[in-house]
């Protein structure tokens, strides 16, 4: 019997699951190499990041009502991506398993490679072999169909070298030596700083979903502790940059800063248990912390950078930020699976561990305490307290009890009657909460806007609660509101005039509009009470604008054919921007100071304002307030008639100015 006859004799070989998985990974790497140049991976990563962010930004507003709120679409997108990857991996595994059973026979025939198992024989033509790769003690025979045959070389002894040489001759391919699958290494206890640097570099690679980055991980309990300390220091430094240099350490913020540590360890352990190997807990934990450190740096850099960008970039910023969060979650899952060397059927454990044990509890944890807080200045605090006391001293003066009725009577006496045949706006602006000046500034600005731009001079009134105006402006109470509406009803032409009621204050989940001026307690204003006052005053056409938290609850009770209702938020949402130092709330600025300076149409202004509010909220990281509107079919043509009259008046004023301009030009010279 010749040597060729010996080498052509079928050889029985056994393969293990781990050996077959080496083939699966090798086939996957070859498929990726065939897909294009390495530089394309960077652009693919960025593109996926943008797509994930865009999907989150788009669907979060549409799916808020679903269980899980705005995080539901994020979880669905991540799960969908994982399921698709799992399906692709399973398909590849099934293809390998179909070609490569546990036990088989292989023979080198002159015209083909013969593989027999379970009484079935497959003949692989030599031209179908694309590459021969040796990884450790395994030979991988790569086929043009991206399938791979795994041959344990130990089963070919003692004729291994001769068998490989004949295989090369028949296939026309040379055996190349490939790299073994990247696996974490045990850390060198004598060089902790070098290992720490290697783990940080691995974190960058793992975030970019680089398979080779796994080999840079240096695993030990000491390295895990060092990585946790580095991440904690980065969080502290990022908090310090956000709060400012004039700050002091807040020990109560430690609970928020380290809340994720036990969750991370639990996620790594749960994933290892899914693989039935507790020894994989430590590599998984090191990988998760390494990725998390890089994510922490990018998140703080993004937050600090976005704060310096204009509001015009707010929506893009939100998409980028949440896109990165989605990518970070996916990268954490992949890093955990690779560090623990999980088989495809075990990787769902990593998915559930990261989403269910590491990510979800942190979203439910509402304590956002910072490790740094502004430095407490006792002198400034005392001065602020004295100013607050002085602020409210005027409210409690005895003279106010007599001044207020006279102020309201005088203001109501100045309300001019409507002009017959001229559709007009009457305006009542109400600032409810007396402890923040933003509501005072807002009602004054809105009153000025309607007087100057909407021809409401002599037909507007301001009711406001503020300690600085108790001796100059009528206070805002249900009683004052009822009297005012009654007078407006008497002065308006019911069939052609519209009353604009602008209410700005705080709101409650029970849909109560705050009318408060310490130390007085005024009656509560609910949408039902407001509607009753309007009906009693005989006011037919109404445009009601409510800027307050949970103000969407005012829409159903107030809506009707003769009524336009606009609110700053949904019935179950906060509105934003009501700080003491602000000139406008978010909704007030967008609607009055921006939109209604460009148009006379309330519905168009509302649409423009809603977009602007959403952009500002996204830039600030607030939950979308989602302003609401209900336009009655009967009031719409009346508002259109007023809009057209104002447009005609504005055009006439412009033409008069253009005619007068040439006569004035010589005087200016």
UniProtKB/TrEMBL annotation:
Presence of keyword Transmembrane: yes
Annotated GO biological process: proteolysis
Molecular function in Gene Ontology: peptidase activity
Spans traversing the lipid bilayer: 39-59, 65-85, 224-243, 249-270, 282-306, 318-337, 349-365
Keywords: Membrane, Transmembrane, Transmembrane helix
InterPro entries membership: Peptidase_C13 (IPR001096)
Keyword Acetylation: no
Pfam families registered for this protein in UniProt: Peptidase_C13
Name of the protein in its database record: Peptidase C13
Lineage of source species: Bacteria, Pseudomonadati, Pseudomonadota, Betaproteobacteria, Rhodocyclales
């Amino acid at each position: 019997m010749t040597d060729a006859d010996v080498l052509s004799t079928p050889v029985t070989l056994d393969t293990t699951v781990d050996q077959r998985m080496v083939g699966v990974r090798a086939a996957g790497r070859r498929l990726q190499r065939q897909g294009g140049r390495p530089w394309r991976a960077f652009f693919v990563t960025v593109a996926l990041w943008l797509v994930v962010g865009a999907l989150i930004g788009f669907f979060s507003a549409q799916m808020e009502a679903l269980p899980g709120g705005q995080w539901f679409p994020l979880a669905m997108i991540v799960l969908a991506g994982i399921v698709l990857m799992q399906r692709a991996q399973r398909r590849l595994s099934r293809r390998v398993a179909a070609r490569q059973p546990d036990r088989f026979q292989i023979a080198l025939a002159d015209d083909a490679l013969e593989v027999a198992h379970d009484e079935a024989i497959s003949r692989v033509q030599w031209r179908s072999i694309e590459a021969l790769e040796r990884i450790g003690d395994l030979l991988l025979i790569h086929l043009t169909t991206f399938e791979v045959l795994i041959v344990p070389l130990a089963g070919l002894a003692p004729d291994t070298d001769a068998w490989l040489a004949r295989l090369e001759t028949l296939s026309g391919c040379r055996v190349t030596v490939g790299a073994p699958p990247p696996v974490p290494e045990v850390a060198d206890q004598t060089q902790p700083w070098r290992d720490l640097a290697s783990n940080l570099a691995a974190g960058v690679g793992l975030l970019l979903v680089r398979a080779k980055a796994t080999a840079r991980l240096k695993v030990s309990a000491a390295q895990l502790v060092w990585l946790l300390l580095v991440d904690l220091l980065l969080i502290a430094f990022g908090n310090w940059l956000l709060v400012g240099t004039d700050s002091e350490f807040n020990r109560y913020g430690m609970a928020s800063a380290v809340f994720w540590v036990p969750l991370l360890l639990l996620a790594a352990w749960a994933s290892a248990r899914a693989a039935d190997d507790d020894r994989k807990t430590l590599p998984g934990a090191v990988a998760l912390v390494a990725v998390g450190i890089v994510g922490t740096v990018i998140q703080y850099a993004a937050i600090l950078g976005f704060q310096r960008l204009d509001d015009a970039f707010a929506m893009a910023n939100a998409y980028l930020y949440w896109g990165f969060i989605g990518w970070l979650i996916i990268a954490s899952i992949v890093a955990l699976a690779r560090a623990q060397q999980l088989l495809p059927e075990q990787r769902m454990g990593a998915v559930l561990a990261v989403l269910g044990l590491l990510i979800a509890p942190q979203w439910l944890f509402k304590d956002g305490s910072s490790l740094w807080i502004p430095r407490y200045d006792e002198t400034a605090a005392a001065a602020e307290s004295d100013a607050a006391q002085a602020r409210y001293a005027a409210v409690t003066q005895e003279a106010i009890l007599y001044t207020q009725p006279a102020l309201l009577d005088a203001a109501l006496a100045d309300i001019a009657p409507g002009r017959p045949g001229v559709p007009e706006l009457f305006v009542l602006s109400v600032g409810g909460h007396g402890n923040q000046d933003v509501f005072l500034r807002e009602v004054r600005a809105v009153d000025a806007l309607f007087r100057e731009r909407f021809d409401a001079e002599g037909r507007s009134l301001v009711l406001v609660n503020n300690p600085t105006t108790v001796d100059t402006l009528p206070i805002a109470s249900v009683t004052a509101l009822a009297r005012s509406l009654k007078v407006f009803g008497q002065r308006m032409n019911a069939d052609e005039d519209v009353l604009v009621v602008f209410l700005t204050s705080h709101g409650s989940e029970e849909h109560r509009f705050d009318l408060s001026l310490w130390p007085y307690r005024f009656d509560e204003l609910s949408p039902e009470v407001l509607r009753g006052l309007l009906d009693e005053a005989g006011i037919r056409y109404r445009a009601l604008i409510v800027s307050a938290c949970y103000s969407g609850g005012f829409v159903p009770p107030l809506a009707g054919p003769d009524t336009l209702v606009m609110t700053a938020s949904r019935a179950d949402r906060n509105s934003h921007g009501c700080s003491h130092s602000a000139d406008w709330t978010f909704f007030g600025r967008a609607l009055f100071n921006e939109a209604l300076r460009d148009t006379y149409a309330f519905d168009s202004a509302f649409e423009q304002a809603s977009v602007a509010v959403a952009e500002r909220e996204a830039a600030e990281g607030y939950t979308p307030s989602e302003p609401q509107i209900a336009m009655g079919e009967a009031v719409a043509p009346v508002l259109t008639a007023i809009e057209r009259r104002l447009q005609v008046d504005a055009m006439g004023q412009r033409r008069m100015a253009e005619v007068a301009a040439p006569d004035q030009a010589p005087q200016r010279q």
